[in-house]
Every structure is written in C-alpha cells, then in structure tokens.
Amino acid sequence: MYNLTGRNIVLGVTGSIAAYKAADLASKLTQAECSVDVIMTPEAAKFIAPLTFSSVTGRPAYASMWDAASAVTEAHVALSRRADLLVIAPATATTLARFAAGSAEDLVSLTALATRAPILICPAMDPNMFEHPAVQANVETLKARGVYFVGPDEGRLASGQMGVGRLSEVETVMGAIRFVLGRGGDLAAKKIVVTAGGTREQIDPVRYVGNYSSGKMGFAVAAAARDRGADSVLITAPTELADPYAVDVIRVKSAMEMRDAVAEQCARADALVMTAAVADYQPAEAIGEKIKREGRDSLTISLVRTPDILKDLSADEGLIKVGFAAESNDLLENARKKLKSKGVDLIVANDITAEGSGFGADTNQVTLLDKSGAEEELPLIGKYEVASRILDRVVSLIETRQR
Ligand SMILES: Cc1cc2nc3c(=O)[nH]c(=O)nc-3n(C[C@H](O)[C@H](O)[C@H](O)COP(=O)(O)O)c2cc1C
To answer: With the CA atoms of 135, 140, 146 and 149 taken in that order, what torsion angle do they form, in degrees rounded to the nearest 10?
Structure first.
C-alpha cells in the first residue's frame, strides 16, 4: 500500500448512526499496515463499543479524554502529536461545530485542536442537517483553515430518507486518506496522464470490437500517482471500475476518442503512462443501424488500422512516455521492438498468458525495459505495487529529462 505502510492514523469516531462503518475503516487501515489509534466521543460509544475498535486495531481505543490521559504516559495530547493524519469518520454536526468554534470538550475535538497533522473529516448526518446554513458555515470555516473533507455522499440514509448526508464509502475514504498523506510527495506539482481499459470500436449501434482489458493496471497507476502528490489524470475506455478519489477521470470509448483526449491532456503534462489496450483495428465504416441476421449465413466486416496514439502525439519534448507491451509470445523481443518503434522512455513488458498476470488479475508480473538497454524483471506483485515501481522510474526520468 506504499504511502499507508507504517503511518500513524488517529481515527476519531463521533455519535452518528454510521459509527459502525468506522470499524470497517479501522480494520482496512490496520490491514494496510497503518498503526490505528481510535478515539471516540462519549456519544459515539453509545453506538459502538471501544472494544470493537481495539479488537480490529490491536491497540487501545479511548472513549474519554480521562481514560486517554491515564493510559498514555505523555499526556492527553500524546495521540495528537503521534498522528501522521487525523481522520474523523463519521463526523457529526456537533463535532463540526465544536471544532469550528475551537472547543475541546471531548477527546476528538481536543485532538483536532492539538494536532498539527493534516485532518480529514467525513461528515454523516441527516440531509436537512447538512444543508443547514449553520453546518455549511462550519464546513466552510474548517475548509478555509485547510481541513480536508470527503463526502457526505448522496443516497439512502439510515432514517430511510434520501439526500446528501451518507458517510462516504470506506473505499472512498481510504482513497482520500492516501490522497492527503501523499500531498508533498515526489510527484507533487507534476501532471501524470494515464490511459486504461480496452477501447471499443463500434460495428453498429449495439456491437463493438473490444478486448479483455479490465483497466485495473491503469487505475492502479493513476491512484499511485495521486498518492505521491501528482495531479493525476486518467483517460479510460469503458471499465467496471469506480472513479478513484481525487483523480481526474476522462471516460472515452474508441481509440480515436482516446487519441484526442491524450493529445489534449499531454499538452501540459510531465509524463504519459499508456496502460490502455487500444484496439489496433476498427471497422472500416460505422454502420448506422443494427445489422440483422435474416438473409445472411455469414458476415464479413472490413477492419482498418486505428490511429497510433503515441506516434500521433506532438507533445512537447520533455514529456516522459511509458508504454506497455502486453504479449502472449516472444515477450521481451516484442517489447524491445516496441521500445524503439514507439519512441518511449520505458516499456513495461507484460506476459498476459502467465498465471496471475495480465487482464483482470489483481497481480501482475512485468519486466521494465529502458532506453539504455537495461531490463529489470519484477516478481509477481499487486498491480498497485507494479504501478509504484513504474512511477519510481518516472520520478527519476523526470529528474534527468532535458526540457
Ligand atoms: C439514533 C441517533 C442517530 C444519530 N445520528 C447522527 C448523525 O448521523 N449525524 C449527526 O450529526 N448527529 C447524529 N445524532 C445526534 C448526535 O448523536 C448528537 O448530536 C451528539 O450530541 C453528537 O455528539 P458527538 O459529536 O460528541 O459525538 C444521532 C442521534 C441519535 C439518537
């Protein structure tokens, strides 16, 4: 998980019906090798027991500042000093008001005032409450002080009401945590453009020529770039995957649309990572109406070459280009050819037939080939980790580039 490993996260839980979801968040953070200290308001402890949190984090959970003061040797503010990040999830209207007013009545608001770590707030409340000018004013005050917010989301609340007030999904909160921790990382102020997914070339209004790309590799690169502070742009062909938090997602369908989006985004970018499986061929002509089966025993569709996105790119000289070679045979030989013919700085050779590798898998086994002729074979690892290794290379290529 890279930017989560070994981080000290203080998780503040307040008195919302959504407090039970914080247990899942505490568990996911612990699984990602964070050290998670849970602090709760006395009201939160009416919804969920501290024991639930201490059971999933393996660390004490505090529901009173008096407990914390006796258990932590330094003082009641020790947790605020230790934190790399304070997350308040769920955050009630009352807690927002206390924090905005500078009140330290309980362990959560006290820690929020005492810490100098970044703070991420995840509000959860009835939609009418959230819309109220008093709550909105507190949100604005806190935002103006540099506090990060995620959500609340729109949807069905525990009360049965629909509206904006739901605690953001745990996956989204995890993305926001990684985003906040990544601020000031080694890709800060750099724009990284990533392509993902398999393009769809329309045959008729209901059919297309496609491929099995899931988009997971590109989504992982875009998220990993975000987690290092980059301005991360993801141009993706259709996939099942949800937009990653704080990534600028541009959805396209065909190779042509992807080429245009890449050209536009790369005009002011630092690096382009092309993980998308772009179709090599598209139907020669778009058929406006659905092709009927009646009266046909066979059907021939004529295909023509799609544009070559990298070759058509007239981006400025300093753009670092990373290509992928997804091959089913003669992997390294084909990758070496592609490195030259595409004029890229780095090729990621990906044997899509290997066990646990390629389309749809959560892991990947790749070899990195650069212009100097060096080849680095990586073990079978998670796609986020592969993405991080690719971005390590991008960081050094950006440092040494000539512009
Ligand atoms: C069943 C129930 C659910 C509640 N859910 C919320 C909620 O989702 N958001 C909120 O702001 N307040 C909610 N409240 C009200 C808060 O619990 C109350 O304002 C409390 O004082 C908050 O204290 P705290 O911020 O110190 O935890 C709820 C109250 C009850 C009884």
So the answer is: 50
**Which tens digit of pLDDT belongs to each residue from 221-251?**
999 999 999 999 999 999 999 999 999 999 9
For ligand 1, whether the C-beta of 315 sits within 6 Å is no
How many angstroms does the Cα of residue 155 sit away from the middle of ligand 1? 18
Give the tens place of pLDDT for each residue, 103-130: 999 999 999 999 999 999 999 999 999 9
Fold classification of 2-182 is: Rossmann fold (3.40.50)
Q: Residue 92: CB within 6 Å of ligand 1?
A: yes
pLDDT given for residue 268 in this prediction: 87
pLDDT in tens, 160-217: 888 999 999 999 999 999 999 999 899 999 999 999 999 999 999 999 999 888 999 9
Q: 191-400 maps to which CATH number?
A: 3.40.50.10300
- Cα 246 to Cα 60, 136, 174, 179: the distances in Å are 32, 22, 11, 7
Which 3 state secondary structure label does DSSP give 234? strand
The ligand 1 atom nearest the CA atom of 106: 26
Which pLDDT tens digit goes with each residue over 137-156? 999 999 999 999 998 999 98
Residue-level pLDDT at 292: 86
Same fold, 2-182 and 191-400: yes
Residue nearest to atom 10 of ligand 1 (CA): 92
Nearest CA to ligand 1 atom 29: 16
Phi, psi of 146 (to 5 degrees): 95, 10
Percent of the chain with pLDDT over 90: 66
**Of all atoms in ligand 1, which is nearest to the CA of residue 40?**
27
Return the structure tokens found at 339.
Answer: 């490195």
Distance 125 CA to ligand 1 centre (A): 8
Partnered with residue 121 across adjacent β-strands are 88, 149
Residue ranges of alpha helices (H) inside 183-289 are: 216-226, 255-266
Question: From atom 11 of ligand 1, which residue's Cα is the shortest distance away?
Answer: 92
User: By CB neighbour count within 10 A (0-12 exposed, 13-18 middle, 19+ buried), where does 119 fall?
Assistant: buried
Question: Is residue 366 lining ligand 1, measured as CB closer than 6 Å?
Answer: no
Q: What's this model's pTM, rounded to 2 decimal places?
A: 0.87
Q: Check if 211 is active-site.
A: yes
138 lines ligand 1 (CB under 6 A): no
3, 128, 138, 211: the active-site residue: 211
Domain ranges of the chain: 2-182, 191-400
